[in-house]
Structure formats: C-alpha cells, structure tokens
Amino acid sequence: MKKTVFLGALTLAGLAAGAAAAGTLDDVKARGKLNCGVTTGLVGFAAPDANGVWEGFDVGVCRAVAAAVLGDATAVEFVPTTGKTRFTALASGEIDLLARNTTWTFSRDTDLKFDFVGVNYYDGQGFMVPKALGVTSAKDLNGATVCIQTGTTTELNLADFFRKNNMEYEPVPIETNAEGQQQYLAGACDTYTTDASGLASTRAAFENPTDHVILPEIISKEPLGPLVRHGDNEWGDIARWTLNALIAAEEMGITSANVAELGAAAGGSPEVNRILGTEGNLGEMIGLDAQWAMRAIAAGGNYGELFEKNIGEKTPIGLARGLNAQWTEGGILYTPPFR
Amino acid sequence: MTTMTDPPKASFQLSMLIYDTRYRSYTFQFIALALLIALMAFLGVNLVKNLAEQGQNISYSFLGEPAGYDINQRPIEYDSQSSHMRAALVGMINTLIVAFLGCITATIFGVTAGILRLSPNWLVRKLMAIYVEAFRNVPVLIWILIIFTIMTAVLPAPNAFRGENPASSMFLDAAAFTNRGVYIPSPIWGSGSLVVVLTFLASVFGVFYYRRYATKLLYDTGRLLPMGWPSLAILVLPTLIIFFALGQPISLDYPALKGFNFQGGLHIRGSLIALWFALAIYTGAFIAENVRAGIQAVSKGQTEAAASLGLRPKRIMNLVILPQALRVIIPPLISQYLNLTKNSSLAIAVGYMDLTGTLGGITLNQTGRAIEAVLLLMLFYLTISLAISAVMNVYNNSMKLKER
Question: CA-CA distance, A28 to A24, in Å (whole number)?
C-alpha cells in the first residue's frame, strides 16, 4: 500500500514537472494566481505591511503583471526568497516571475538559463558605516570587517574591489538582510555592503538613521530587474512589455488617476492609444486582451508613481531618481516604442 | 495389501516459484530488486533528459575556475583568485576543525554529565537531568542561533576597547573577548623552538613510562611509588630548563587593537565559538544519556564486590565500572560523533564557512552547478563520516569483550 502511494506521488510529481515546462501563461491563468518571487523583506522594495499585505517597488511589478494577465492586481502569491534560494525557485517552476532586486549579469542570463525582461532599477554597490567610525571613503576601509549577503554578486564585487585597491578585509557572510542589519548594529562588522538602494532601505528602518552614512564610492554596476525562465518567450514578452508599459506610461503622462479616462476612448496621441488598446491590437499580439496595459498601470500607477510611493524622496528611504529618471529628464530609462 | 509408491520426483516446475514456500521468497525478492533497479534507472534517465532539455550538462570543470570570493577563516592559503576546488578544500578543513573540537568537548560534557546524573547528591543529579532534557529536546539550530546572538549582543565591539577610558579592557592584557570573536596570544616559533617541543613530547612519553613502571612495581612487589608530583615534575621541568637554556626561543604574539580590528594573536571567530559550543553542548546531552545507560548496564554486584574489597568510590568508577561500561557506551558514541559532524553543516546560520557554506553555498550559487555541487558535497560528507566510523571501530574493537 505504502509503495503504491509512493509511486503515485512520484507519477504526480513527474506530471507536474512536465506541465511546468509548458506555457507559463496557461499555467498562471489556470491557477488564477501569479507566483511571484520577492525578497524576504526589504522595506520599500518588497516587505509586508502591518496587515501582512506585501508592498514595495518590486511588488508593484508583480502586481502589474498579475493585473495584465489575470485582471486582478491582488491575485499574486508572494514567495519570499533569499539570495541563495531565488534561482532554484525560479528554475524549478515554483515561481513564475522573480522580482527581487536581482542583478542582470551575463552568466545568469546565459549559463543559468534565465531571461531578464528589463531593468527596473539601475543600482550600484555601496558601503554603509556608522558616522562615529569617522570613515569618509571606501578606500579607508583597509582591515575592516565587512558584513555581506552571501550568494550575491556583491560578494564578488567586494573581493574585486579590495584586491584592486590592495586592501585587506574580513568578510562576515550573512543570509538575509535582517541578519545583516542585526550584525551591523551590534558592531560585529564595521561596514555593511550591498546595493546602494538596499542600504538606503535598510538605513531607513534603523532607530537613528542619521547616525549612519553611505560612502560616496559606488563600486559596481547593478542593473536590477525582473526575470523569468529561459525558453518560454511568450511569458517573457508579457513580463517585459508590462514593465515597459509602466515606464512608457510615465513618459507619456499616463497615471493611475487618468488611465481610466484616457482608455475609455481613442485620444489624440496614437502611441497612448496603442498602449491602452483603443487603437491597434498590441494586446492580441502577446496573447492578452486589449486592456492589459491599462490594468497594469491602474494597479499601482506608472513607473514614476511606483518609485515616488515606495522609495522616492518623500519616503523614509529617500532615493533620488538619478539614473532612474526618464531619458527625457537626464536618466537612462528608455523604452522601445509601442508599435 | 501393501502398495509401493515411488517417492515424488524432485522435478522443478515454474509454478513452484509461486506455490512452493522454498522458492517463493526468492521470487518476490527478485521482483522487488528488479523494480528498484528500474526505478533508479528511470530517475537517472529522467534527470539526464530534463537537464539536456534545459540545455545543461553535468560537468565538473567549474572546480578549476577562480572562485572569486573571499573566506574569513583560512586554515590553508586561499584568496579570491584560488579555484573553487581550493575553496571546497578550505571548507572541508573548517568542517573538520569544528567537528574535531566539537567531538572532544561533547565527550567531556557528556561523560561528566552522565556520571553526575547518577550522583547520590540530589541537587547535582537534578541539575544534570535538567541539562540533558533541556538541550536534548531543543533543535540544535536554535542553540547555535541563541549562543551566537548572545555573543554578538552581550560582548563588546572592538570599538569599546578604544580611547583613554575604554568601556572594556583586555583580559590580563592578553586576551580580548569581542563580539567578533576571541583574540588570544599566539606563539611565535623562534630558532631552537623545535628542541623545546621535542623535549616536551619526550617528557610526555617519560610520564607514561614512569606510570607504567610504577604500576608494574606495585603489582610485582607491592611497593607503591608516588604518582602525582613525579609525573608533574617529569612533564614540566626538562622543558622549562631547555626553554631557558636556549634563551626563550618561543615568545607570544599578543593581539592589539590596530585600525578597525585587533591584529596579531590568534582570532577565534564568534561563528566558530557559537557553532562549536552549541554542537558540543547539544551532542553532550545525548552522550550523557549513553554514558548513564552504559554505567547502569554494569550490574550493581560489581560495585558492591569492588567496595567489599575496600576500593574507594573513585577507584571503583575508574577501574571496575567504566572499563565495562565503555563496551556499551562506544557504539552509540560513534553515531553521536557522526551526528555532530553532519550537524556542523548548519554552520551557515552563523556565517561559519564550512563545506556547506563554500561548496554547497557560494560556489553552488555563483556557478549554478547545483547537482554537481550537491553530489560532491554528499561524497565529502560520506567520506568524512566513514573515516570517523572506521577510526572509532578500531577503538571499539580494542575495547570490546575479547571472546575466545
């Protein structure tokens, strides 16, 4: 009897694995829910609020995709992943989309068999130190003890940076951001290093954020973006163009406030009409209905709104737009045309 | 009337495979084996096929590539340009270090607690019972985290040792207890230090020889030589004389606060201490129960017989009870050592870079070679466990009842 159950379970597992290889879009539609991988908690990017509802900048991407595909921005199952578990979770089909400040690198795109669908935050690795330490430059960190999240690109950048500058350091590997915060605040490490946005977010959660400074040196390029499994290009296109729609919406002045009005009937701008589905058949081309982008924008607002609401200068995290401004405003956000 | 019937001919028929009890068990065993092999083959083929579908292959070439990351505790030379293989090796040595330290400490804790649990003193007995029950019944991961958290939160940061009136000061000006670990002086081996070390080793042998001679003399002639102070003298005096005669070739390197951290001396990291202590105290609780069981397995008559011969309680324990109890204690002790070694793979929880942390953690993550890394990891742990098992079995064979 036991053996039968075991074999049955095995068959089921085999079937499930086979099914995962088929169209992710169909899977998501059949399930009625999008499984989205996020961080285990990084305020501003992805963290549950007091009511246990996930919110943040990366969460916004998940909700936009869910709104575009399923028509419901809340039909998302958030799966918290660590730096170590995220790729396995995506490769195994446990999640459909990974929106977890993951750096787009060559080997992840090719060797690990993933597809990055774009960049939602241009970042770089920085260092945070307590003000009392009196350090003003990362070049002064010779001999320091450095807390570092293990399994990330930052670990390799750190090794390169110290080697290049002929400096010594003592790495303290940690698993999650919360653990790093605890070690750093207890003084078990002199400095904490991760993406500058992550540092700003971590610092915002401190009791006395002003006692800590983020050093001016940015030691790496970290284009962070959502990614999907390699091979399912239809699903990749949906994720890519949902992100692009959010960015284009800001450029064209489509906001969550006016999207319903603009999408009600064809207006004066042909590209706005095409995005919102009042003209042409872009939705049909990626296997969705005409209002997909309208719902994605209505879910949490356009890129700029998401940025300001979650990590912008008015929030405790206080990040400036910098590189992440539209190309028309001195940044490098630049979407291909909707045509 | 008599009828003569021939005895039935022993001819083999196919149906006998099922209906004859002599063959039936073989039939079922064979079918089970065939099914098992088929299942394994199916899983293997499935794996290879799915990997091929994803465009991946099994390859160990990544082991030769530069690792690119740094490791804090490096028993052998290693930097970020060393290969992944080298990183795995560093991890394995770190695993062995914590396993070795843990096994020794766990044995000390376990034997002490096990004997004290049978103490006639009510308070001692109950205290040991609390120790055993509390530590045995809470997952070891929790203990590791508790000890590590207490260390980081309670001990001062190196910064507290700075300034005119530092909040903390070094213990005896030699050791510093910080939340980054403990810094203790380390020896500097000058020229001639080899002679001192050799003298010390010779003294150790001398002590053994003296004690054996004294025992033999006691058994042969009944003369009792003093044991305590001559042993100590043989152990210490020659080494001291040589040490000063050669002009103190071994000196100590004291840790001192320089820059961000203490420099010099030996740095025992907080992660190692937390892991080591937690594993030792957890496994010690299990060993204590083994020791208690072993002692209670020796019949009470033995104790009473020894007492009636006039032996003192300590002698009874050392000469009569423990040698017999060891036969019961050692086999489960081996399995506790193996458990401790395998539990050391929880090291990543406190950032101790053991084999799971390097090969199974960072290397796996940076190269994405999960199957290869995990297979290699299994091979490493299997080898370590079998080696420990082999060594302990040799010891067990020398201790067990000689049956002739």
Answer: 6
The phi, psi pair for A127, rounded to 5°, reads: -125, 140
Which residues contact residue B287 at a Cβ distance below 8 angstroms, ignoring those fewer than 6 apart?
Answer: B106, B107, B109, B110, B111, B114, B333, B336
Q: Which residues of A touch B158 (CB under 8 A)?
A: 187
Q: Which of B42, B46, B50, B70 to mutate to test the interface with A (most CBs of A within 10 A)?
A: B70
Task: Please state the φ and ψ torsions of residue A35, each to the nearest 5 degrees.
Answer: -90, 115
Q: Who among B55, B80, B153 is closest to A163 (CB)?
A: B80
Q: Which of A101, A187, A236, A5 is nearest to B260 (CA)?
A: A187
| Listed residue (A247, A288, A287, A298) closest to A271, CA to CA | A247
Q: Do A183 and B152 touch (CB under 8 A)?
A: yes
Architecture (CATH level 2) of domain B56-160+270-404: Orthogonal Bundle (1.10)
Domain ranges of chain B: 56-160+270-404
Rounded to two decimals, the pTM is 0.76
The two structure tokens encoding residue A141:
């960190």
CB < 8 Å to A141, chain B: 260
pLDDT tens digit sequence for B77-87: 888 889 999 99
Tell whether B91 lies on the interface with A, counting CB pairs under 8 A. no
Per-residue confidence band for A14, with pLDDT thresholds at 50, 70 and 90: very low
Q: pLDDT of B306-317, one tens digit each? A: 999 999 988 888
**Hey, is the C-beta of B54 within 8 angstroms of any chain A C-beta?**
yes
Domains plus CATH for chain A?
24-122+224-329 (3.40.190.10), 126-220 (3.40.190.10)
- Which residue type does B116 have? L
Q: How many pairs of residues across A and B have Cβ atoms under 8 Å apart?
A: 105
Q: Are A247 and A152 in contact (CB under 8 A)?
A: no
Contact B362 A111 (CB under 8 A): no
- Output b/e per residue, B82-119; b: 16+ Cβ within 10 A: bbbbbbbbbbbbbbbbbbebbbebbbebbbbbbbbbee
Concatenating the DSSP letter of every residue in B41-110 gives HHHHHHHHHHHHHTT-----GGGGSB-----S--SS---TTSBHHHHHHHHHHHHHHHHHHHHHHHHHHH
B181/A contact by beta carbon, under 8 A: no
Check CB contact under 8 Å for B157 and A186.
yes
> In this predicted structure, what is the pLDDT of residue A10?
47
For B261, which of A91, A170, A183 is closest by C-beta distance?
A170
Contact yes or no for B365 and A113 at CB 8 A = no
